[in-house]
């Protein structure tokens, strides 16, 4: 459920491109008349936020096309140039702005690529069971149409199979039933199976995963279960983890808020409030600052 508040009437893509150009050329309260990359220039981050954070993915794509046509320069290149010349106070803002302005599929591909590059240094991450599960998650076909029928006989059988596999107190192998079920069944089928699991065994499957599945496999399995059936639980937890303690994991916080703003941020806010007795807004305000804070708050949306 998107929380993006698009103005009415919405400006044309060309008008928005022109406004972005002006916002990118501000220096000490004045416009720079030379090209965007002029030495000493800075940007009106508030204006950039007000424009782009109130546009849908389709509208942002149209703005990028208009900007490239009008100024013979990709908009993201302008942002990347600014990032390459960042000061510490604006680094997180520009990284977040680049991710937000990307097409959602382009953004996801970029995030996956960066995550895999970081994990290559950890050889244990590439144990065969983890590879098997990742490959199946990204390659399986799940029918999610309106006529997706839940097979209750399969629900009963697979709830039992999951309980047996998870409570063995040893890490299942890649070919195990738990991987097959989680990576191939439709979301509606999985929700019914996990509900039956709770009814039959008196505990939530995520709780049992925490108790009985150790290491990377357990963490990945729990994440997969939550993301497939109740993603707001996973993303509320990630936001909380990113801001706990001293300092903030800005890349983690940015990734969640940027990627979920047009999908289910409202549900994430509600889950966050119930679980942590505070709001996403309050914690973002307490742990971020300046243009980066304003950018995140614009995507989080208003909370009562």
What can you see in these coordinates?
- The chain is mainly α and 304 residues long.
- It has a domain at 151-229: Annexin (Annexin V, domain 1, Orthogonal Bundle).
- 66% of the residues lie in helices and 1% in strands.
- The chain contains 17 helices and 2 strands.
- The chain has helices at 13-24, 45-52, 57-71, 75-84, 91-101, 104-119, 128-139, 152-166, 177-184, 187-201, 205-212, 215-229, 231-243, 250-260, 265-276, 280-287, 290-300; strands at residues 26-27, 30-31.
- The protein has a two-stranded antiparallel sheet.
- A hairpin with a 2-residue loop joins strand 1 (26-27) and strand 2 (30-31).
- Helix 7 packs parallel to helix 9, helix 11 packs antiparallel against helix 12 (215-229) and helix 13 packs across helix 15 (265-276).
- The protein is elongated, with a radius of gyration of 22 Å.
- Mean pLDDT is 86; it is low at 28-40.
- Keywords: Annexin, Calcium, Calcium/phospholipid-binding, Repeat.
- This is Annexin.
- Belongs to the annexin family.
- GO terms for molecular function: calcium ion binding; calcium-dependent phospholipid binding; phosphatidylserine binding.
- It comes from Oryza glaberrima.
């Amino acid at each position: 459920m998107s929380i993006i508040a698009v103005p009415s009437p919405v400006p044309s893509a060309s008008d928005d491109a022109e406004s972005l150009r002006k916002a990118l050329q501000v220096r000490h309260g004045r416009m720079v008349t030379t090209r965007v990359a002029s030495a000493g220039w800075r940007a009106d981050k508030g204006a950039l936020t007000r424009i782009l954070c109130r546009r849908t993915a389709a509208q942002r794509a149209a703005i990028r096309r208009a900007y490239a046509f009008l100024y013979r320069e990709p908009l993201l290149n302008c942002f990347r140039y600014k990032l390459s010349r960042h000061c510490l106070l604006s680094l997180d803002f520009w990284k977040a702005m680049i991710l937000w302005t990307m097409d959602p599929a382009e953004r996801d591909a970029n995030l996956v690529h960066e995550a895999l590059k970081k994990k290559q240094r950890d050889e244990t991450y590439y144990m065969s069971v983890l590879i098997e599960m990742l490959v199946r998650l990204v390659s399986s076909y799940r029918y999610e149409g309106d006529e997706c029928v839940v097979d209750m006989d399969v629900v009963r059988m697979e709830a039992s199979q999951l309980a047996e596999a998870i409570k063995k107190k040893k890490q299942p192998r890649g070919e195990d039933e738990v991987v097959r079920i989680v990576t191939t069944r439709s979301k509606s089928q999985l929700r019914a199976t996990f509900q039956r699991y709770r009814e039959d065994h008196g505990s939530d499957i995520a709780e049992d995963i925490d108790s009985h599945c150790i290491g990377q496999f357990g963490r990945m399995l729990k994440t997969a279960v939550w993301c497939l059936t109740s993603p707001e639980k996973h993303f509320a937890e990630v936001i909380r983890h990113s801001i706990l303690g001293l300092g903030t994991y800005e890349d983690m916080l940015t990734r969640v808020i940027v990627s979920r703003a047009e999908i289910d941020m409202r549900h994430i806010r509600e889950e966050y409030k119930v679980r942590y007795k505070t709001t996403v807004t309050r914690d973002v305000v307490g742990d971020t600052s300046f243009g980066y804070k304003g950018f995140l708050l614009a995507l989080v949306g208003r909370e009562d």
